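Hi F.,

I've been meaning to write this up properly since the lab meeting, where we talked about keeping a consistent format for the predictions we share between groups. The idea is simple: the sequence comes first, exactly as it goes in, then the structure tokens exactly as they come out, then a line or two of notes. No screenshots and no reformatting. I'm using this chain as the first example so we have something concrete to point to.
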Amino acid sequence: MLGLNYYTDGSIYIDVAGADSPWAKLIRDIYDGRIISYSIDIKPSKRFSKYDFYVKMDATKTNFNNNSIDGVSLQCAFEMFIGNDDIALIKELKRILKPLGKAVILPLYMHTHSCHYASPDFYGKGLGDKDSIEYIRWDCYGIPSSRKYSAQKLKARILDLITDLGLKYKIYVLRNKEEISEEIYLHFILEIEK
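Output, unedited:
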């Protein structure tokens, strides 16, 4: 998996579903504008609204040109793509990524079975996959559905699609998280390459 040092001057990078994350601004600041970063989300950022690179945009149908993006990341975001939006996102990545461009999804939330979590205000509203078990997330509000793939569901729904579109993928497993912090919930990372 390549870090940001892989990118060259003028590379375009998107933080998908960035919300109020400082990531796009940090990239521009640290790399002195050499990496052109954007944060896109269906809800506009309040914290970074003064920056024109924090953009209200649907990641499943962006206005970026074909083959124009060097890198994409989704950080604690992919699980929130409800319905068929996860599939639509993979198809959009195929369209916008440059040849050899990469998208990184972290964490890639997995479970022993297909399930989804909803906060109490959305529980029971049928927003998760029909064939998955719904659980309540009591620690927050405003979560319509947070998908956790089983290995079989991930393969059938996402990995086979990636391959069918002519993309490549790698799945990374973080095996030493305890050495970093016991609070880390990152177990899997999905890297997609055009």
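Notes:
The helical segments are 23-30, 85-96, 151-164, 177-180.
The first helix runs from residue 23 to 30.

If this format works for you, I'll send the rest the same way.

G.
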